[in-house]
Specification:
19 helices; two-stranded antiparallel ribbon; alpha+beta; Cytochrome P450; monooxygenase activity; Cytochrome p450; Cyt_P450; binds protoporphyrin IX containing FE; metal-binding; iron ion binding
Amino acid sequence: MIFFFKNRFTEWAKMLGDIYSIQMGQQNWIILTGDKVVGDLLQKRGGKYSSRTPSYYFYQILTRNRGFISSPYNERYKMLLPIMLEMLSQRAVKEQSDLIDSQFHILMQNFYRASTNIKDSLYPKYYFQLASLNIITTLCSAKSIKDIEDPFYKEFEISQNDLIDLVKITNNLSDFFPILGWFSNDKIYRRVIETRRMDETFYGKMIEDVKNVSEGKPCFIKNLLHKMDEGILDELDIVHILGALFGAGTDTVSSSLTWITAALANNPEVQYKAHQELDKIIGHSRLPSASDEPNLHYIRAIIKEGQRYCGPIYLGVPHYIEEDDEYNGYHIPANSVVILNQYGIHMDEKRYENPKEFKPERFFGITESSAVLANGNYQNRDHFGFGAGRRLCTGIHLAELELFLGVSRLLWCFKIENASPLSKDGKPMPIDLEKVRFGITVWPEKYHIKFIKRHENVEKVLFG
Ligand code: HEM
């Protein structure tokens, strides 16, 4: 696997047909690289293609069969889905928009301070991580974290790094070669149990803290505790719902923003057009806010192009089919892992002209959100970054709002300057977006940029 992805723009994805099957140990992997196949199978036949790969360590043991993202498409999942959808619905996100708005205000203040304090350059990853973590933390528990030295942030970072290390394919071999399950791997088993203990303590404490504040602001945990009073959930369910929200809702947003910032630094002409749009529509006396989204066409196009050109997930979250199926003469055997090759589709020349160029203009005229397009015909989709079918990203509305506030405000406040070492012609070397790092999502290699404030009002609007 890692072999395939050493380089972001490897050609392997194009070598595969629209639908391709490979054998991984005893697992059969069906790789979907054509947009039509994704529409036909994951969307139209969603009832069959919506399960998840059974995983002994990472579903059964780590989540005690209670994980949401890793759950099979069973009755329990169908009971949890409406609860998740309600918490993350467009209406719910709109109701929380002040809170999300204020986190992006703080993020811009942090960038402003950092860019005036740090003379040389900065790497924005940790700032984006803090903001996205703070948004989920505040939504869940109505609390927030001050900076990356906060013990809560440190604890979360340790548990995420532990998880990244654990899910390495070499730790999961018994899922591919079930015979290895006979030789139980005590070391991995003990680590999974320890990670579970840490997770359950971390989220358990968060639940206790909310319980102990009888008054206080509304938050997800409070809603979930009501479901517990009604006998619909128990406390361990809440722990694993929180695990899903923190796991799926932090790294994805922060790595998307880290990628888009790098793509913008490499493309000053794109920034220039965005600045023109912001000056014309917003002016210099206030930050863009959620209600400006319909009028900021170029910003919207940048975000869609960012998700296509450098989205943080390459092969989606694998789906799984539990019964045999036939498709255009192909036999798809029961118990196959079904992979949405997002990266392959996003680099498909038939779908996107010159796919290796960062060209927001390709999305001109598309006014619908990714959430709306993802539920329609595959041909009209902007990109496949949020997955497809019944397992489509549950947090898509929240993600879109975060990306909008992050990108529009960053560009309103700053010019993003590439601060890489100079090449022979005296210009900074372009940030190498082909080099990637793997975590829960895919990240660019560390890069160096400068944020230059765009006008005199920036300080006043951010701190005034
Ligand atoms: C730019 C940001 C994000 C991206 C690119 C993204 C992408 C994805 C993808 C590719 C999947 C798998 C879809 C499939 O199986 O076909 C997924 C699932 C999921 N996402 Fe997101 N996501 C983002 C943000 C969020 C946020 C902010 C949340 C919530 C706080 C969230 C919650 C979830 C959940 C709960 C699932 C599991 C859905 C299921 O298994 O039924 N995501 N996401």
